[in-house]
Structures are given as C-alpha cells and as structure tokens.
Design goal:
Number of helices: 49
GO molecular function, one term: zinc ion binding
Pfam families: ZSWIM4-8_C
Number of strands: 8
Helix content: 40-55%
InterPro entries: Znf_SWIM, ZSWIM4-8_C
Structural class: mainly alpha
Organism: Cairina moschata
Strand content: under 5%
Keywords: Metal-binding, Zinc, Zinc-finger
C-alpha cells in the first residue's frame, strides 16, 4: 500500500480548549483521573471481559469457556464506534465521561481479521472470500512491478505461500516480533522486527495505523514496500491489536491530554519534544512559532489545532485505506505486458478482489474498479487495434467482459444511494463515448434491443440496424442504471420464504403467481439474472437464492406454456416447414451469462458446509483447509416440488438454457463465446453425479426439447442459422444412455443436423431481412466457428457409433444420420476410422456390422473427394483397401468393379488393384485358387479400363497387372501404341519401353523408344536434361538389335537432339562395337564396324559437328571471362569429334580461323585459343 515511511497526513480534525472561540468543542471532559500522560490498557475496566468481548466478536471463544454478560456501556460504545464519527459524538453531548471515551476509542479499531486478510492477499476463490483460498492465494501483484519492490515482497510471495503478506504477518506476530504497541486515540503505532535472513540483517520497521469506525483509514510503514496490499508489518500490528487488546496501552487523543496541562506544563512538553527530536522537528517548530506570533498569519485565522489521533470528522468518508496510485500503476504494468508473464491471471485476481470487496459490502470495490477501468481505457493498444482494424486477443477480450459484468453488478447494488448511482452513470457514459471503447461482441456492433426490454417474439427487431449505435462493454451497465428495486412484488420475493398466494387463479402469461401460489418474476431473463448476480455479489446470498428460484419457476412455467402453444399449432407449422427464433438473444454465451448465474447461485446453496452462504465463522480454525466441493440434495425449499432440491433446480435450469433455440450471433468473438460458455456449463454439469432424481430431470427435459418445436434447439423444425446442439446432445446422450437408450438415441440423432450447410433449409421468420435463410447454396454464411461446430458434430456421431457396437438396427440408423448430415469429407473419414478401430479391437472378434458401417463411410469419403483436391486422398484410398480387406473378398471385388465412382484411374491401378493382388492380401484372406482368379480377373478388367481412360498414368500399371494373361497383356500393349502418337509423353513411353525390355520384349521396347524419340526435343544447352539417359539407352538398344534398327533411329536422334555433347557421346558409343554383336534370337552378324563415311553414322557425325559449331557461337555471344577456361575445354572436345571425319583436321582449323576473325574483339579469349589450338 505504498507504505513509504513518511509522516501521516495532517489531521482534518481541529481541536481546541473549552470556551476558546465559537468553533470550540462543547463540553469539558469529565473524570480525567489518568492525569497528564496517563494511560490504561485497552481492556478498560475489566481486562478479562474486554478480551472475552473481543473474542466473541470473532467467534473465537475457546471451547469450555464461559462469558460474562457485556456491560451496557460496552454495548452502547461498540454500536457508537461502528456508526458515528467521533466529532459527531463530541458535538452531540456536552460532557463525555472519560470511561465512555475510552470504550468508544477501544471499540473503534477493526475487530475482524477477515478484512485484514482481504487487504493483504489475493482471493482466488471469489465464491468463498473468507475461506482458505483467500490466504493461500498468491499476492503476486508487485511481481510485475520491477524496480522499487522491496526484498521479500510480493514477487517472492508468488512462489512461496509462506511469503504472503497475511501469512508473514501472522508469522511475525507468533514469533513475538511486535513491540512498543501504543494506541493514542484513533491512532495505533508499534515496531515490527524483521528477523535476520541469510543475506539480510535484522531490520526494525516503524508502523503507524489510523482507524475510524472499525476501518483502517491509513497506514504507513518504514519498510518502503510498494504494493496494492498491506505489508506484513501492518498485518502483524493489526492482528496484535485484534488478538491481544489487553496488552495494548490505550490513551485518549493527544489533544485531551494537552487540555489538562497548564501553561508551564505545555511549555515543558513542547521543549522536551523539540529536544528529543530536534534534528527532525526544529525547523518546523520554529516556522510554526513564527506563524503563531504573527497576528495576520493563516494559522491564527482558524480556531483550534489539528490532532491526528482525534478520530474522524463528520465530513470524512468512512472507508478502508486503498492506495489508488499503486492500483493504477500495477494495472498499467500488467496491461503493458500484453498477456505475458501471467499478467492476465493477475488482472483476473484483481477482478476477484473487487468481487470480494463487493461481497463484504466494502465501498472500495467500486473505487478500485474505477481505477482499473481508467487504466484499461488508457491502454494505447485500443487506438492501435481500432486504427489497424485488428481484433484484440481473446484473453484480453475476456478481461473487458469481466469489467463490464462487474460494473453491471455495481450499478445494480440494491442499497446504493441515488447520488452514487448518478455519479457512476456519468462516469460510464464518459467512458462509453470514447471512440476506442470496445464493443460488446468484439468487432461487430450488436443489434439487440435495449436491456430493459423483454423480447416477445422479436420485438424491436425490425429497426434499421444501420442507424443503431454500437453497443459497448458499458452499454448494459448504463442501461441498468434505469433499473430499480422498488417493485413491491420483487421486494416480497427476495425478502421472504413465505411469500405465497394460494387464492391466485390468474393463468395468464404474465401472472404474478403460478398454480401452486408460488411467486413468479417476469422480466427479460438476462436482466432478471443480473439482479441475482448483483445480490450475490453484494453479499445477499439468501435474497439471490429466492429470486433465482422465482426465475427458474417462471422459466419452467413458460416452458410448459410454450409446449402447449406449439402442440396447438404443430400441424400448421410443420406443414409450412417454417420456424422462428423466439429468442434473438441466446442465454448461453450472453454477455451477462444468465444461465451460469442461476446455476452458480443454486449450486452454492446446496454445497455441503458452505460458509460463504451460511455466514462467516471459525475463520482462523479453517485457515489453510480447503474443502473439496460436495453437493447434496438439501431439504426442499418452500417453492420446490416434492422431491426437488436446489441441485435438481440448478441442473434443470442448465438444461433449459443449453437447449434453447437461439440464433448464431455476429462476429468471431461472440460465436467463440457461445461455444466456450456451452462447454464450461457442460463441464460443471459433468462434475455432478447423476442419481435417480436427476435422471428424471434429464428425461423430462429431453422429452420437452424434442417436442417443443421452435422453442427448442432440438425441435422438429429449426431455423437454418440456429446454434447447433451437437455438444449439448453428446452430453445428454452419454447421461441418458444407461437409463433410457431409446430417448438418448432419439435426442442425439435429432441434434445431428447442421442446416446452415444445406441449400434448402427452412427459411424462417425473424422479422430481419438479412437473417432469413436463403435457398441459394451458401456454405459459409457468417459462421466463423464452423470448423469447430463440424468437429463437435463428428464427436457426437463417433460417440453414437461407439455406443451402438453390436446393435445392427442402431448402427444402420446412425450411419444414415451421418451420411445425411455430415458434409465434411475429413470428418466422415475420421468417423470411418473410428468405427474401424472399434470394430477390430484386439480383445474381441471383429464386429462385421460396424466394419460394414466403416466401409460405407469410407466409400462415401471416396465419392466426396474424387473430384476435389485433398492432401489426405492417398491415405484415404490405402485405408479403404485395408478396410475392405477386413470386410472380405466380396468387398474388394465390389470396389474394383465400381472403381470409376470411387477412384481416379491412377489410384485404381497403382494402389487399389496392386494392393488387392499382393501376396499379403491373399495370405490375409486365405483365398483359394478360384477366389484368387476371380479377384485377378476383376483387377485386369480394372487395369484395362483405367489404361483406356488415362493411358499416360495407367498404362504401365495395366501392363504389370495383365502380365499373367496373354490376351489382356496384348490388349494393354495395343492401348499404349494407340495412345503413343497423341497423348503420351516421351518420359512415359521411355519408362514403358524399358519395362518391355526388362520383360524380354526388345522389339516392342525398340518400337516404343522410337515413338518416344518423336516427342523429344533437346536444345544445344540442355546437356543435363533427364531424358539424356533414355536417349543413350534407346540408341544402345537399337545398336544391339542391328544395323537396320540403328539406321532407323539415328535420323530421329539427329532431329530431336541438338546438344553437341550428347550427340558426340552417342557417336562414340556406336563406333566402339559392331551393331548386333549382342545378338538375339540366334541372329549372327558379320562383325564389321560401321563406317563413319557412310550412312547412318555419317549423318550423325555431321549433325554432331554442326551442333558443336552452333553451340560455340551461341556460347560466345554472352560469354564472361570466368568461363574462358571452361570454353577452351569445350573446344577441345569439339576437336575430338571433328577429327573423327577424314577431313576433320582441315574443318577444325577453318573453324578456329573463323572464330579468330569473328570474335577478334575478345582479345584475351582469342589469345587462349591460339595458345591451345594455334
């Protein structure tokens, strides 16, 4: 709390002698038995009685001890000390006896340790602000503070619970470190010794505390600690005064003592005071003396003099000390960290501290939230994000949500003064008008009606949305300022458990009582629930519970009325196929979280030994003991059905909210919030163990949701953009399955739909033109969370598949639902895989029905992805073959016969047929010869069909698959020849040609190679082209077959290849051996080498020389000096080729001379040419 060791601020109270001017305090003090400087122990007349009274106020009376009755003086003094500023007491009574003054001063110090704890530690458990969570949580605020944090401060407290200020204060007190405790009037002082540590010497801290009406109003400590909360030394001194009041010496305010002195005594007093502290106070003393002696000085214009120990004046605000500067500084630091270093968690802890203060009805709650809000509004990132059009981070957005919700609680305080509410409203409107103030639903303006308007059938929804101002995070709090608590019906509901009207027979929609005579509360549901949250937040749990029960009873009655209304209009609505959204504002995901509020309020009421609900007791005994949350069906409330409890009511209202049909909101953040809140609420429900009573509630609500038409998200006809029920239905399904399987499946199957992805969903009637569903296929209207929703739909389907294992009828029903409702191939593939895993578990025989479901889903995936790009397609095809193998030989045969609806030709031949014909498949299925031949026949038929459809990619696979059948093989070969002249590339033909040679068909290989050569074109500079090896192989094949074959291919080579080095390589190889030397089919040849002067080699030689000449000129056009040496080596290779001709020497010389003449400007290069070639 910024306890910086400075002197306390000047006292506001002015005290003077009796009779000294008109502003004097009336009345001479009676008694005065203490004499000057006299004091008494705080226990007053009876130390034992005082101690007992103090202990009883805390509920800490030791067991077996008796307590004597309090005196009337103590009772009166305690009440006066709580409520009246001491100045009012002085003005009210002419004479105040000294014993009375002492008892008032005594009782004015805080009596509860709970507030001390609240101001010296975080509370992570806001629902139990006096419980163990308050003291076991981390006071890590100043961890982010950086410079100025004292050693052993809050930064270390984050890592060590024992270093928390409250814990450390208790340790210092228990260790006897508190000394020199003195209470003078309303001022407490003392010293706290910090024991020596390994690296630090013992230090003594001087602590001073001012208090008024049982609240600490200011603190100072010489430790210099900078933090939002009190330091351990302040805690230690405060607890010393609370726990050991009989050991604290008590004096009346110092002005009272001075009144009893004569002039000589006063002069002696002042001179001694100056002597003891002359270095500190002498300048001040001289300055005051000069001013007092000056007739016209300001100090002489007022009566009396300030007394820091005299208590509060009438005008002083009575609130606990809060260091505003530190609050602002710490929030600013946390915001600057942008969510790193746990700053988001620390801000949430600050919000929890605000809630804790509100629950204690501490005015600092609103004060602290104001300081936090000012820093949030000053965050420079707001302007940057608005300027750049980028969204704030999700965690930061949630902090703003909590900020808005807290302001809603504050302005709905049922006992706040009108002037206070007016002040808050003014401040809220100021923040609301700032350009960068965040909008309620993220980046999109909310078009919902005013908070105070209920929403009957879309009222106010047809206003022009473009003219409406954006709703900010403060809009609801501003609107809530118009709400009040004066309604007599509301007052009766929250104030009494006996408010009934059994003679009330009004059965209209807005009747005040139901048929049982129990009170109902008709108000816009989020607004009504905001009242509940406000009551809880301000420490009125019983009132909040009463209102919550009235709201839930109202919702249940409305639910029944809606069901009756729908049944009356069912035929007409279903015939038209039209639905309407009756709630534009969904309750789950709503900024005010109405369902969460009702659920939490009711669950708090049924917690076992919930101290936060039943009152604060035995605080110190429970320190450090954190009880696990257990829930029980506590005795029924007055307004519950027989057998019902708070627990059943909480569960039922959660189910009502989750099942409500509601429109998907605009904007990414709002949509994510719907998903997140739904999952959070379901997570809380999952913590509750279902018993027979709760199962009845589940059955009741499931039946209603299925039959309630447009009022339910599970109704027969819903709006196209209604929020899907997949996550909720999965929870309902798993909960109901052990108890009512038929209802469980009916609910889950109804929820499987996802109409927003269907082109002809019901159009709906929402009185908003842009919300009417279109019949034009539009896969992504404005749903940013669609991928998450589809994954939840997939999870629901997977859950049903798992549960339906072994049940043929159910599996078929689930399969039909999946095929009808799931539109994502990846999700259907996941379901197929899930079904396959479940069907083939190692500990049981395969479930053939589930395997067939898996196969059907796999086939659907194949059909869906056949004409679309999908990076997992190859994996999907391989998996399908595996699945079909598990199903049996007939499944494999079926997918091959229908391959064209499932696979591309390449997939069918390279993956499907190849895998089916593999040895592993034959062994896995234990196939006999007949079955093998049948599969092989289907595979060959598939191969030929694929080769006809896509010869480029399937011809080779077709030839491979048809090897063992002569007719099929010949057919495949003919398909290749037919396609070779048109659609096939040289690389594909070369590949098939090499395959033919490998299979012993050299002439067919030669034929395909010549066809490939006609498609090839190698330019002069493509000496690393991947087809070079194929060209060399083709020439070698032709050379091996004989002179005629070589003579036939060389013209093709000359025409297709312009690269000199490739041509020279071919030429050299052809001159090394005799054509046909590697004879085939018993052919022999003459053994003579071919002449370079005759065809076909002469043609090849001329082409090679010509290629070298052309390549040389091309390279010289753009040659650089660093390539000169490489060029000389190229000319050397050219010379070798030139010399193969009988007149090659002459040709090369002429070629070099031409180069010298043409490129004589490249002097250095030509010099290198002369050096090498003359």
């Amino acid at each position: 709390m910024a306890e910086r060791g400075q002197l306390p601020p000047p006292a506001k109270r002015l005290c003077c002698r009796p009779g000294y001017g008109p502003g004097c305090r009336p009345g001479q003090r009676a008694g005065g038995g203490g004499g000057p400087g006299g004091g008494a122990l705080c226990a007053g007349p009876s130390s034992a009685a005082g101690a007992a009274a103090s202990s009883s106020s805390l509920g800490l009376l030791p067991l077996g001890k008796t307590q004597s009755p309090e005196s009337l003086l103590d009772i009166a003094a305690r009440r006066v000390a709580e409520k009246w500023p001491f100045q009012r007491v002085e003005e009210r009574f002419e004479r105040i006896p000294e014993p009375v003054q002492r008892r008032i001063v005594y009782w004015s110090f805080p009596r509860s340790e709970r507030e001390i704890c609240m101001y010296s530690s975080f509370n992570t458990g806001a629902d139990d602000p006096g419980g163990a969570a308050a003291v076991s949580s981390s006071s890590a605020v100043s961890a982010a503070g950086g410079a100025g944090t004292a050693p052993g401060g809050a930064a270390e407290a984050a890592a060590d619970e024992s270093r928390l200020p409250f814990r450390r204060g208790i340790a210092l007190l228990d260790g006897g470190c508190v000394d020199n405790v003195l209470q003078v009037g309303f001022h407490l002082s003392g010293t706290v010794t910090e024991p020596a540590m390994q690296s630090e010497p013992e230090t003594v801290c001087n602590v001073a505390i001012s208090f008024d009406r049982c609240k600490i109003t200011s603190v100072t400590c010489s430790c210099g600690n900078k933090d939002i909360f009190y330091c351990a030394h302040v805690v230690a001194l405060s607890l010393y005064r609370i726990r050991k009041p009989d050991q604290v010496k008590l004096h009346l305010p110092i002005s009272e003592t001075l009144f009893q002195m004569n002039r000589d005594q006063l002069q002696k007093f002042v001179q001694y005071l100056i002597t003891v502290h002359h270095t500190e106070v002498l300048p001040t003393a001289q300055k005051l003396a000069d001013e007092i002696l000056s007739q016209n000085s300001e100090i002489n214009q007022v009566h009396g003099a300030p007394d820091p120990t005299a208590g509060a004046s009438i005008d002083d605000e009575n609130c606990w000390h809060l260091d505003e500067e530190q609050v602002q500084e710490q929030v600013k630091i946390f915001l600057s960290q942008g969510g790193y270093h746990g700053s988001g968690k620390q801000l949430n802890l600050l919000f929890a501290k605000v809630r804790e203060m509100l629950k204690m009805r501490d005015s600092n709650g609103a004060r602290m939230l104001t300081l936090i809000t000012e820093q949030f509004m000053a965050d420079p990132r707001l302007a940057l994000w608005r300027q750049q059009g980028t969204a704030m981070t999700d965690k930061y957005r949630q902090l703003w949500d909590e900020l808005g919700a807290l302001w809603m609680c504050i302005v709905l305080n049922p006992h706040c003064k009108l002037e206070q509410k007016a002040s808050w409203l003014k401040q809220l409107k100021k923040w609301n008008s700032v350009d960068v103030c965040p909008w309620e639903d993220g980046n999109h303006g909310n078009e919902l009606p005013n908070l105070t308007n209920a929403l009957p059938q879309g009222a106010n929804a047809n206003q022009d949305s473009s003219n409406r101002p954006h709703r900010t995070v403060f809009t609801r709090a501003i609107e809530a300022c118009d709400l009040h608590w004066q309604d007599s019906h509301l007052q009766h509901i929250i104030s009494s458990d006996l408010y009934t009207n059994y003679c009330y027979h009004d059965d209209t929609e807005n009747s005040l009582f139901d048929s049982h005579g129990w009170p109902l509360w008709h108000e816009h549901v989020p607004t009504a629930c905001a009242r509940v949250d406000a009551l809880r937040s301000h420490g009125y749990p019983r009132e909040a519970l009463r209102l919550a029960i009235a709201i839930v009873n109202t919702l249940r009655r409305q639910q029944q009325k809606q069901l009756e209304m729908f049944r009356a209009q069912k035929k007409e609505l279903l015939h038209k196929g039209v639905t309407s959204i009756t709630n534009l504002e969904g309750w789950v995901g709503h900024p005010l979280d109405p369902i969460g509020t009702l659920f939490s309020s009711l669950m708090e009421a049924c917690r076992v030994d919930d101290e936060s609900f039943h009152g604060f007791s035995d605080f110190m005994e429970n320190m450090g003991q954190c009880k696990s949350l257990e829930y029980q069906h506590l005795p029924a409330h007055k307004f519950l059905e027989e057998g019902e409890s708070y627990l059943t009511l909480a569960v039922e209202v959660a189910l009502i909210g989750l099942g409500q049909q509601r429109i998907m909101p605009d904007g990414l953040y709002a949509q994510e919030k719907v998903c997140r809140n739904e999952e959070q609420l379901i997570s809380k429900l999952q913590e509750i163990e279902l018993d027979d009573t709760l199962v009845k509630i589940f059955r009741k609500q499931a039946v209603f949701l299925l039959e309630a038409g447009p009022y339910s998200g599970l109704g027969e006809v819903i709006h196209r953009e209604s929020v899907p029920m997949h996550t909720f239905a999965k929870y309902l399904f798993t909960s109901l399955l052990p108890h009512d399987a038929e209802l469980a499946y009916k609910t889950a199957l109804r929820a499987m739909r996802l109409l927003v992805l269907e082109s002809t969903a019901p159009s709906g009637d929402m009185s908003r033109p842009h919300h009417i569903a279109s019949v034009v296929p539009n896969r992504y209207p404005r749903w940013f969370t669609l991928s998450h929703i589809e994954s939840q739909q997939c999870e629901l389907a997977s859950t049903m598949l798992t549960a339906a294992k072994g049940d043929v009828r159910r599996l078929e029903t689930v399969l039909e639902s999946i095929q009808k409702n799931i539109h994502s191939s990846s999700h259907i593939f996941k379901l197929a895989q899930d079904a396959f895993k479940i069907a083939t578990l190692m500990d049981s025989l395969p479930d053939i029905t589930l395997l067939k479901v898996s196969l059907e889903l796999g086939l659907q995936v194949m059909r869906m992805t056949l004409s679309t790009l999908n990076w997992r397609r190859r994996e999907m095809v391989r998996w399908l073959v595996t699945c079909a193998t598990e199903v049996g030989v007939y499944a494999l045969d079926s997918i091959m016969q229908n391959w064209f609806t499932l696979f591309t030709p390449t997939e069918a031949t390279s993956i499907v047929a190849t895998t089916v014909m593999s040895n592993s498949t034959i062994v896995r299925l234990h196939l006999d010869c007949h079955q093998q031949e049948k599969l092989a026949g289907s595979a060959r038929t598939l191969a030929l069909q694929c080769a006809m459809k896509d010869p480029q990619n399937c011809a080779l696979s077709a030839l491979t698959l048809c090897e063992k059948d002569h007719i099929a093989f010949e057919t495949a070969y003919q398909i290749v020849l037919d396609a070779a002249t048109t659609g096939m590339s040289y690389s594909q033909l070369f590949t098939i040609a090499r395959y033919m040679e490998h299979r012993g068909y050299p002439m067919r290989a030669y034929k395909l190679a010549t066809l490939a050569m006609t498609h090839l074109n190698l330019s002069y500079n493509q000496d690393t082209h991947p087809a070079i090896n194929d060209v060399l192989w083709a020439c070698a094949l032709s050379h091996s077959l004989g002179k005629n074959e070589l003579a036939a291919i060389i013209p093709l080579v000359v025409k297709s290849v312009k690269c000199a080095t490739v041509l020279s390589d071919i030429l050299r190889r052809c001159t090394l051996t005799t054509p046909g030397m590697v004879g085939l089919h018993g052919r022999r040849n003459s053994g003579k080498l071919m002449s370079l002067d005759k065809a076909p080699l002469r043609q090849l030689l001329d082409a090679t020389i010509g290629a070298y000449i052309n390549t040389t000129h091309s390279r010289l056009t753009h040659i650089s000096p660093r390539h000169y040496s490489e060029f000389i080596e190229f000319l050397s290779k050219a010379r070798e080729t030139f010399l193969m001709a009988h007149d090659g020497h002459i040709q090369f010389t002429q070629f070099i001379d031409n180069l010298k003449q043409i490129y004589k400007g490249k002097k250095k290069l030509m010099m290198l040419v002369r050096e090498r070639f003359g």
